[in-house]
Specification:
By secondary structure, this protein is an alpha+beta fold. The chain contains 5 helices and 4 strands.
């Protein structure tokens, strides 16, 4: 179904398992060119591998459009989940999004390929799920 961006953020007691790509300068430049909706920033915190080895802070890609927050009232960023699960929960939580994009993750992915649908879906996500800018590099 494609790539689902994740939000990496610090919080008290929060631990996340993330996959890391080790890219050379040429690969990193190619990734920068092909991801226009993301900005590469240095993460302010170091990374600790499962074996306990600490690495210097890596770069992360921060979405230009912010992150999706839960609509249950607490406003916390959504937890990491599978893309199909995420899209399904967004569709379940918004009749407007279902009308625009379809009622399944597959229909959603097919429909948001169209610029006008994608722009309208973004507006729905901003209003209903509070897609907000978040500076994860701090």
């Amino acid at each position: 179904m494609g790539v689902c961006a994740r939000r990496a953020g610090a919080g008290p007691g929060e631990i996340a398992r993330l996959f890391v790509l080790w890219l050379d300068e040429q690969q990193l430049a190619a990734l920068d060119r092909t991801e226009p909706n993301y900005v590469r920033r240095p993460l302010a915190h170091s990374v600790t591998l499962e074996g306990g080895t600490r690495l210097p802070p890596p770069f992360v890609y921060e979405g230009r459009h912010g992150c999706l927050r839960d609509s249950d009232g607490d406003g916390r960023p959504r937890r990491l989940t599978a893309q199909r699960t995420l899209i399904g929960s967004l569709l379940d939580g918004s009749a407007a999004l279902r009308r625009l994009c379809g009622d399944t993750p597959e229909k959603f992915v097919a429909n948001v390929r169209h610029d006008a649908v994608r722009a309208a879906a973004y507006k729905i996500l901003q209003s209903h799920f509070r897609a907000e800018q978040d500076d994860i590099s701090e």
